[in-house]
């Protein structure tokens, strides 16, 4: 008796013959059709366990065939077979209802594995249908099945994940459920994607290594369920807070395992589709994602950040001057240069970051779970990676593109994609015109950069520097939950207002790092979260204040002289310049800021 009946559809005779022979050897009964119309006639007169169809065919393509099959036979399983170049069409076909997608040339093992998985899921469905028809299981199992089957109505990962957690909580009586899902088809690591109930998200691990779960992960009176399909772990659910109190019963565990069988299949389908979408939304030159896909991911990240109270950052990166090279280099040479540049940038990014192409030489990067300080650190890594690599080898100093970088963070700089994009565009233009490049101070030490800025100093009220210092300290008090860097060097004699502001930090634990630069540690700073360092280590005794964090950035430096009624000083909100000063000073002081 054959394992199953298969209808193979392809307009090419040799491929139909190939499929027929291969499947017959595997023990399947095979019928072939040369096109969509012939396949529909076959389905009208007979029943098949599985349809395997080519995607690109004359008269009626695979996508249209699937649509018509679904109209007639909503539960018919279909596998799409096509070439690499048709990935986007295949994604659309998956949305119409295809069960799986395979690339030509077909690997025997991959085809056999796909068919077996589909038939196993089909048998599972049929067994449940039989049990329901014969009323052999109690009503709870029926409820479980109906809810689990509802999981297959969506392929979008986020809403599917929420349905999975809801189903587990309902079936087991859990009030709290958390779901970690595999990052992608290639990764084995799990990432927290959704939660239900009274959950302290900040206390839960963002990522999990299934081989090394935290010691306290399976806490008492909780239920951990592994979601496996096809030999792979797709997700992990942890349930807790049983409605009636106490632990979960054996019946709860049995229901959870049955829910896991179908949830795992649904998650596998969603992850498979997401992998197809990612491959289809790639820039052909650099392999970076397209802007449309990127903006869709950012909108999803906004929803996630809203729900869990988290932050993320966006970067814009531009290789300024690429257009000038088009007069000297060929298109393939330009393409290789851009590909090498994106590769070097990718080496500086984390596995969770995502880079997308906006235009030739201009890219956007999504940095999940990152604030303004974290984005600044990654910007510096990107600069170092491009400088250290051989991306621009063979180009003269005048020809080498200039790297421009700008960042914006959610929610400090905006809560919508359009607003964040506007902030990024404005900051990129600021970076293009930054005084840091005008002074050619990128390679300077902190003290050297201050000396250049003091050349631009102009006389002003003597009270202004002190007021600015006090304002910067108050900014830390106003935003204690925001990470930031504040360096204050009041000069000889700690002014009363600055000292008072710093003393107000006593007993607090602000996330901003506050560094007082001067001689010795004043007794009044005891018990405050202030790091005191010698002015000698900064390389200058000029009074200054530097603040960098969420929102505006600011720096001021004053001539050291105390005798002048209006001492010259220079101040700026140039974000690129302030960022350079803050991180150069951190490096020159050798202060560990927990970055």
Question: How does this model look, in words?
Answer:
With 595 residues, this protein is an alpha/beta fold. It has 4 domains: 5-115, Rossmann fold (3-Layer(aba) Sandwich), CATH 3.40.50; 137-278, GAF domain (Beta-Lactamase, 2-Layer Sandwich), CATH 3.30.450; 310-432, Alpha-Beta Plaits (2-Layer Sandwich); 446-589, Endonuclease, Chain A. It is built from 19 helices and 21 strands. The strands form 4 sheets. The chain has a 7-stranded mixed β-sheet with strand order 15-21-20-19-16-17-18, sandwiched between helices. A 5-stranded parallel β-sheet has the order 2-1-3-4-5, with helices on both faces. α4 (87-96) packs antiparallel against α8, α6 packs parallel to α8 (250-280) and α7 packs antiparallel against α8. The longest helix has 31 residues, at 250-280. The radius of gyration is 31 Å and the shape is elongated. The model is unreliable at 135-142 (pLDDT under 50).
